[in-house]
Prior knowledge:
Rossmann fold; seven-stranded parallel beta sheet; 8 helices; 7 strands
Amino acid sequence: xxxxxxxxxxxxxxxxxxxxxxxxxxxxxxxxxxxxxxxxxxxxxxxxxxxxxxxxxxxxxxxxxxxxxxxxxxxxxxxxxxxxxxxxxxxxxxxxxxxxxxxxxxxxxxxxxxxxxxxxxxxxxxxxxxxxxxxxxxxxxxxxxxxxxxxxxxxxxxxxxxxxxxxxxxxxxxxxxxxxxxxxxxxxxxxxxxxxxxxxxxxxxxxxxxxxxxxxxxxxxxxxxxxxxxxxxxxxxxxxxxxxxx
Length: 246
C-alpha cells in the first residue's frame, strides 16, 4: 500500500547511509521526496534516479543545514516544486570520533553546527511551513543513553535534539503535527565505521540483545511508521531502535 501517497517529504542528509534508505523507503510508500545533501551531489542524484526508476518523484537540493538561510532555501525549493511540505526527517549529522580532551574548538563547533543547529533551523521553518497533520522525525542516537568514550560532543548534540523535539511536539500539537525522535544503536554505515577497528565493531555488535549491528532498513521502517497516519497518536517520544543494546 502507498501509505504516504500525496505527501511531500524533506529528508536531510539523504545522499547516503540511513538518510538515503529513508528517502527510498518513503518514496516507495508513495511520498514525493526532497533529497537534501551538502557535498556529494553524485550520490544524491543516484538516490533520486533510483526513486524515479521505481516510478516515484524526487527533487535534489543542495543545502548546508548548519546555515539558516540555506535551510530556508531548502523549504522554499520544496514548496515551489511540490507545493508544500508534509514530512520532515532530520537525518543530517556528523561524528568526530575523539575523546573530549583531544577535540579542538573548531571540531566541537562543527558538530554543534550540523547536529544541533541544523535541527533547530529546520524545526523553526517547519513550525510555520509544515502542513497541518504533518510529521517530524529527528534522528538521535542510543549513545545518549550510554557512556561511550569518544562520543562526548556527539552525544551532547543528540541529547539536545531529543529535548528540542519534545518541546516542539508541544508547540505544534494544535496543528495535528507530531514530532518524534528515533535513536538508532550501531548501524552499519560509513559514518558508523569511521574511526573504528573490526574489534570495535564486533564488541558493539555483541552488546545488542539480537547480537548484530543494525541495518539501514531497520531504521527506515520505523521512520516510515512515524511518518504515516498509523502513528498519529505518537508524539514527543524517543524510539530506541537498537536491537536491545540498552
